[in-house]
Design goal:
The protein is mostly beta strands and 183 residues long. The protein is built from 2 helices and 15 strands. Bound molecules: 6-O-phosphono-alpha-D-mannopyranose and zinc ion.
């Protein structure tokens, strides 16, 4: 990957020498509370896509990666669309997230399961400390675009999130985004 890359601060869109990935409803198996509601949706429905500039070799310390997550609005049952969420494989690495457009929440969870959440609107800048899992939730009705910068050796650990989830789920209750304990 080269330095031939652009980033539009108004939209978060990147272009040039970038990587892109898309996560659809069928990739989110087991992550929402209401699995029947997830299965009832068209399985190719886009939940989020990620653009990133990974100029260094993944897994090697010393570099930085840059990217934007574009999370669609939507619900699975009463639970808002969200990213898978992850711990860093290399736990001693932190990350920045910053909200570019849309409305949402950032969930942060320690390894013992204590979960806090921060409200996201454009301009919010969130520092994700080492050893904390992080997940984005779109609580609005437009795309939530969130920029990120993370160390090249961070890696992604999705395993424990798949097993236990976060300490809260964010649901639309009486029309209001509400964090409820994850049973
Ligand atoms: C941000 C960064 C990436 C991450 C992406 C999607 O762009 O944190 O490292 O991959 O969000 O989140 P997830 O990996 O949890 O699906
Ligand atoms: Zn991360």
């Amino acid at each position: 990957m080269t330095d031939n890359v652009t980033f539009d601060p108004a939209t978060g869109l990147m272009a040039g020498d970038i990587q892109q990935s898309q996560t659809v409803i069928k990739d989110m198996q087991g992550l929402y509370e209401d699995e029947a509601a997830r299965l009832a949706l068209p399985q190719e429905t886009a939940v989020y896509r990620v653009q990133s500039h990974c100029r260094e070799q993944a897994g090697v310390a010393g570099g930085l990666f840059w990217g934007t997550s574009f999370l669609s609005p939507g619900l699975v049952g009463d639970e808002y669309f969200m990213t898978k969420g992850h711990f860093h494989g290399e736990r001693e690495t932190a990350e920045y997230y910053f909200c570019i457009s849309g409305q949402g929440m950032l969930l942060l969870m320690t390894e013992s399961g204590e979960t806090v959440w921060k409200t996201l609107s454009p301009g919010a800048l969130c520092y994700i400390p080492r050893r904390q899992a992080h997940r984005l939730v779109n609580t609005g009705d437009t795309t939530l675009a969130v920029g990120a910068c993370w160390p090249s050796n961070a890696g992604h650990d999705y395993g424990s999130i798949r097993q236990k989830g976060f300490g809260v789920r964010v649901k639309k209750i009486n029309g209001v985004p509400t964090a409820v304990p994850n049973q």
